[in-house]
Amino acid sequence: xxxxxxxxxxxxxxxxxxxxxxxxxxxxxxxxxxxxxxxxxxxxxxxxxxxxxxxxxxxxxxxxxxxxxxxxxxxxxxxxxxxxxxxxxxxxxxxxxxxxxxxxxxxxxxxxxxxxxxxxxxxxxxxxxxxxxxxxxxxxxxxxxxxxxxxxxxxxxxxxxxxxxxxxxxxxxxxxxxxxxxxxxxxxxxxxxxxxxxxxxxxxxxxxxxxxxxxxxxxxxxxxxxxxxxxxxxxxxxxxxxxxxxxxxxxxxxxxxxxxxxxxxxxxxxxxxxxxxxxxxxxxxxxxxxxxxxxxxxxxxxxxxxxxxxxxxxxxxxxxxxxxxxxxxxxxxxxxxxxxxxxxxxxxxxxxxxxxxxxxxxxxxxxxxxxxxxxxxxxxxxxxxxxxxxxxxxxxxxxxxxxxxxxxxxxxxxxxxxxxxxxxxxxxxxxxxxxxxxxxxxxxxxxxxxxxxxxxxxxxxxxxxxxxxxxxxxxxxxxx
Length: 480
Known about the structure:
- The protein has helices spanning 90-93, 311-320, 347-391, 399-415, 473-479, and strands spanning 7-8, 11-15, 18-22, 25-26, 35-36, 40-44, 49-52, 70-74, 77-81, 94-99, 111-116, 129-133, 136-146, 149-162, 167-170, 179-180, 184-186, 191-195, 198-199, 203-204, 208-212, 218-220, 234-238, 241-245, 259-263, 272-275, 277-278, 290-298, 301-308, 324-328, 333-335, 424-427, 433-437, 446-447.
- With 480 residues, it is of the alpha+beta class.
- The protein is elongated and about 125 Å long.
């Protein structure tokens, strides 16, 4: 069923601002029979929309893990292993990757990759708890499915898979030999925490295991609380504490869906129970009892997905299209993430108004920036033009200053009869400039007209008789 529907025994993963739902077993009012899923659902928490990820059809059988699979994200790829669908032998002999996830934004189909498991390892392939550490996958406990063994063999082994080298190795086993934990989490310090599960002698259990990644794990009790036994529960780590929420309970046991249990991870530290509530502006939101639940957190919000235990409740939620719920981990208040604290009736109007307002604000900001850029460009152009005019002749004095300078030079010439500084001039036949040196002149290349047609002359005066004088037409033209 490649559509949005409730799924039990699925895995929820966080990728950027989206929640990915991997595998699971779905059924609905229109499809009461259980269907094993291999499609990936995506809920975009920013756009508040559901979609089904596009995937390419590979040359091999696409894994159809059904429920109780394990899935994790490592470097832009989803890694999928195991599952309850024992009919598909592929899930027992291979581990798969799907990606790259960055292609989701480009609208490209994700590509499946298959990595065969070496024969003879007898790795459990269902109902194990998995975590990621240093780009390696750790699988704790589970069941070993075999075509020749019914029921499946349960195990407490730990297997480690290196995604870079495609190598498997056996790790430190669990303290018990037949534990199916299914859910686990690891914090940034490398502390692993798993809670609940099923054992042959005890059935459902109400304790967990913890320890540092790669080391022996030890059993953790819930003292002083008597937490009901469960499996397939929701685990998260927030504010330096592990939290347990809901899950699959024995037929004789049920639990208030508003209860959460917290433990700070310290050996011997007591557990605390905290009751959640529904946000006031989502007063019509009813949190269901879950048959099985999976969850994943983005920032301070925990997103919960699963399958309600009551068929009538499930049908009602399908009608209202409420497939996912969100818990604010700061306030411990539930809200409908598909409407982001808006009621269902006002969601469309509020969302459209919000996007329109944001668009108008951004458009106004862009317009103001364009106007400012245009004004700055005009001012810069004017300033540069003025600077070029002022610096085209850097030492050119005004006409009055030139006249005063000439008069002063005349006085000096009269006072020093017969002793004149040499003047040299040169003309270029194809140029419209003249160079003048001497007479204290401070101009080196000046534009001039050549009415005397003397541009072909090239003389050098070394005596007073060959220098420019006041009545020389060329000099008068220069002074003007």
